[in-house]
């Protein structure tokens, strides 16, 4: 069943480029994005978006908050479902309420969706499991088509959620008439390259295996990045902690000097997401500060960075989302190799279940 892979997680990382094509099929056309799930009047009366989810799906929501504001020009708020439920949220009917869930059964996300429906909001689910509770309840669903995900650590589900959200932000931008044709074409071109990027990113697997030897000790990990690479940093830290049981935190790179840098010394490993197409110099100066305090730096970047102790050289891309997807694969492989080296069962980590159906 594992098809020659050591773990389902490994198989699912390797499947990502194929399932991504399924996610895109019928939705990415020559010069536009199309969703047959969404009817003509879907955006009537909508002037804002609220996204709600848990765990990795919450990180996908955070990524999309940058994309929706950039491409659709709609204000976005992102909520952790377990917080949203009890904060007495103010809900207005001009809000499109989007829930994101791999399983479609996460208790907090399902309850949040019920609250939004009760308040009369238009609701959209982005989900991997057809006919799940969330799918049955939402007004409309876009399925991510990742196929069955068995590893507790979400990989291909996250990748396809981000892709659906990116396509959706472009689709909304076109529908709202806020995008130039040239911008739409640039996004479409990048979207078309994602499966190849996911496939080529696997070349880095051996390097991750080798590096995993060095990154087992120390008192913790910082994953840092800016913009969409900040939620990717959160996701990298979550992946590592849930399967390796090592302490890892994700931060916006610019937050270091507001507290976290106090932890920096040689035993602190910094995994720096340093894309070339987005705020490279800003991120670099944050990493330099950590290096000056002796943190051990693993830079993930297409650009050689002299101060890095270790390096994962990514490919050059002309769009931040392509750098995003490649770095996502690197984080997944690195977390998996570290966990395997520690002797852990990466598919069934301790204390965790694939689907969290209780509060
Ligand atoms: O099925 P869901 O997407 O609603 O699940 C949400 C989280 O429980 C899930 O993403 C969890 O954080 C993963 N194990 C992370 O890899």
From TrEMBL:
Single GO molecular function: glutamine-fructose-6-phosphate transaminase (isomerizing) activity
Asked if the record carries the keyword Cell membrane, the reply is no
Its Gene Ontology cellular component terms are: cytosol
Q: Tell me which residues make up the SIS domain.
A: 38-178, 211-349
User: Which enzyme type, at the first EC level?
Assistant: transferase
Active-site residue list: 354 (for fru-6p isomerization activity)
Record field: catalytic activity: D-fructose 6-phosphate + L-glutamine = D-glucosamine 6-phosphate + L-glutamate
Where it sits in the cell: the answer is:
Cytoplasm
Q: How does the annotation summarize its subunit structure?
A: Homodimer.
Q: What is this protein called?
A: Glutamine--fructose-6-phosphate aminotransferase [isomerizing]
- State which gene encodes it: glmS
Which stretch of the intact protein is present? Answer: 241 to 599 of 599
């Amino acid at each position: 069943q594992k098809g020659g892979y050591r773990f389902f997680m490994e198989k699912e990382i390797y499947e990502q480029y194929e399932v991504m094509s399924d996610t895109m099929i019928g939705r990415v056309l020559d010069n536009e994005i199309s969703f047959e799930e969404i009817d003509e009047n879907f955006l009537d009366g909508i002037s804002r978006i609220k996204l709600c989810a848990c765990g990795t799906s919450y990180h996908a929501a955070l990524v999309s908050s940058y994309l929706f504001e950039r491409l659709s020009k709609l204000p976005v708020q992102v909520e952790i479902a377990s917080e949203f439920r009890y904060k007495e949220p103010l809900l207005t009917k001009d809000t499109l309420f989007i829930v994101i869930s791999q399983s479609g059964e996460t208790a907090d996300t399902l309850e949040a969706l019920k609250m939004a429906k009760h308040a009369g909001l238009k609701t959209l689910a982005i989900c991997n499991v057809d006919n799940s509770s969330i799918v049955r309840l939402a007004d409309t669903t876009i399925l991510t088509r990742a196929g069955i995900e068995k590893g507790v650590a979400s990989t291909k589900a996250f990748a396809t959620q981000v892709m659906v959200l990116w396509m959706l932000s472009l689709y909304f931008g076109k529908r709202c008439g806020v995008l130039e044709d040239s911008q739409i074409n640039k996004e479409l071109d990048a979207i078309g390259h994602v499966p190849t990027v996911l496939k080529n990113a696997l070349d880095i697997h051996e390097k991750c295996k080798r590096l995993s030897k060095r990154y087992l000790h120390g008192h913790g990990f910082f994953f840092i990045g800016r913009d969409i690479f900040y939620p990717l940093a959160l996701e990298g830290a979550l992946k590592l902690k849930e399967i390796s049981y090592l302490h890892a935190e994700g931060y916006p790179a610019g937050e270091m000097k507001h507290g976290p840098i106090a932890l920096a010394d040689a035993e602190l490993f910094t995994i720096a997401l340093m894309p070339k197409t987005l705020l490279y110099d800003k991120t670099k100066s944050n990493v330099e500060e950590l290096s000056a305090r002796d943190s051990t730096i693993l830079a993930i970047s297409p650009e050689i960075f002299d101060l890095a102790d270790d390096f994962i050289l990514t490919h050059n891309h002309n769009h931040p989302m392509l750098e995003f997807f490649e770095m996502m694969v690197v984080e997944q492989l690195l977390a998996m190799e570290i966990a395997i080296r520690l002797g852990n069962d990466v598919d069934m980590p301790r204390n965790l279940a694939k689907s969290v159906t209780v509060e």
